[in-house]
Design goal:
LRR_R13L1-DRL21, three-stranded parallel sheet, R13L1/DRL21-like LRR repeat region domain-containing protein, 6 helices, 16-stranded mixed sheet, 21 strands, single chain, LRR_dom_sf
């Protein structure tokens, strides 16, 4: 295979790394916290490996399953943080680098070669993934100027509480920005996952950025508001996923989004003005009250096993297809059809499929409905529907005529 396909995996014995390999294209270095000084990194001259396209830099994890420091760690000594920062600062990648992964880094500041004053070494970077940044309280301000960056993914950064304007404008305090061109000019996918204390994202409408962003995922954070600049300038955004975001109450004015997922957002109340939205998935958003301004909606998936009744917002939209996963009690009420209390909430949809689990069997019970031509089918017995209960449910091969 040759040296160009060799993976160099460096653990405790980093000193045994066999010198410069000019033809190396993929490199993984682990156990970097065991290096006693930055001289090892300087000696290996990663920046001189001109064909290097993939670089994986890894320390040993300090984070538990809850996204916080492991229980036996009261904090990482400043001396250790400074040391790992020095080591990473010396690991200058070459201009050829296209993929960079940083994992379990515990310095307070990310490498200086990620800052706006030193972006040249990352001029070819297309993919940047940083996982488990236990001590970093802010993101480097040079990423927005990378001309080729297509994917940015940050996973598990518990110290970040705010993403300020410097994320998009490194010199935002100055009246004359040295920045050339639009921030994140080629970024198409942005994923922030498990920033458990992140509450604020500043991006004003007058700041144009991310002109070709197509997919945005926000997961496990405390973000209170989606920044106005994001909705205003994300004219290419097609896929939006909001998962386990506490305190967020509304999603509005994403005029280009065609697919939206909202999962377990306990405070989300309103989704409005998504004129091109075609598919919407709502899972366990108990405070949701308003769905409006989505004339192109074709499919709505709604899952919540704690719902007592179908939400009234279903009457305000006209999905072609409605998929419901709910409790057996609610499904029994839905299966009453025209004679039940839920009829007016779903009968205007062209097609409805509703399911409930039972006895460990997923979707054991069902109700199938088509508006035109009319069709109504369920395997819940007529007697149980009449009684409004769930005892004695029978699986029927053919639905009773209604």
């Amino acid at each position: 295979m040759g040296f160009q396909h060799i993976w160099m995996v460096i653990g405790v014995a980093l000193k045994n790394w066999p010198g410069p390999l000019s033809q190396l294209t993929r490199l993984r270095i682990s156990g970097l916290e065991n290096v006693s000084s930055s001289s090892f990194a300087t000696k290996e001259r990663i920046g001189e490996k001109v064909r290097l396209s993939y670089l994986f830099l890894e320390c040993t994890s300090r984070i538990g399953h809850d996204g916080q420091l492991v229980k036996d760690e009261e904090g990482i000594p400043e001396e250790q943080q400074r040391q790992i920062e020095e080591i990473f600062n010396e690991l200058h990648p070459p201009s050829s680098l296209e993929n960079l992964v940083i994992r379990w880094y515990f310095g307070q500041r990310l490498p200086s070669w990620m800052m706006s004053t030193a972006i040249v070494p990352l001029g070819s970077l297309r993919v940047l993934m940083m996982d488990d940044l236990v001590s970093c309280s802010e993101l480097p301000n040079g990423l927005c100027q990378l001309p080729c960056l297509e994917l940015l993914q940050i996973v598990c950064a518990p110290a970040i509480k705010r993403i300020g304007p410097e994320f998009l404008q490194p010199n935002h305090h100055s009246h004359h920005h040295s920045q050339v061109g639009v921030p994140f000019p080629r970024l198409s996918k942005l994923k922030f996952n498990d920033l458990v204390d992140w509450e604020e994202w500043e991006w004003e409408e007058q700041v144009k950025a991310m002109p070709i962003l197509e997919e945005l995922i926000l997961k496990k954070c405390k973000l209170r508001h989606v920044p106005p600049g994001l909705a205003f300038h994300s004219t290419a955004l097609k896929i939006l996923g909001i998962y386990d975001v506490k305190h967020l109450r509304s999603l509005e004015n994403f005029t280009s989004v065609v697919h939206l997922d909202v999962f377990r957002n306990t405070d989300l109340e309103r989704i409005s003005n998504l004129p091109k939205l075609q598919k919407l998935i709502i899972i366990e958003c108990p405070k949701m009250k308003v769905l409006e301004g989505m004339p192109a909606l074709h499919k709505l998936d709604l899952e919540d096993y704690d719902m007592q009744t179908l939400p009234r917002y279903l009457q305000d939209i006209k999905p072609g297809h409605l998929l419901l996963d709910c409790s057996l009690w609610l499904l029994t009420s839905i299966a009453a059809g025209k004679h039940g209390p839920e009829w007016d909430k779903f009968s205007h949809a062209q097609q409805v499929k509703a399911y409930a689990d039972d006895e460990g069997i997923p979707r054991k019970w069902y109700m199938l409905y088509t508006r035109d031509p009319f069709r109504f089918k369920t395997n819940i017995s007529r007697s149980d529907i009449t009684q409004g209960g769930t005892r004695g449910l029978l699986t029927l091969k053919h639905a009773p005529r209604r």
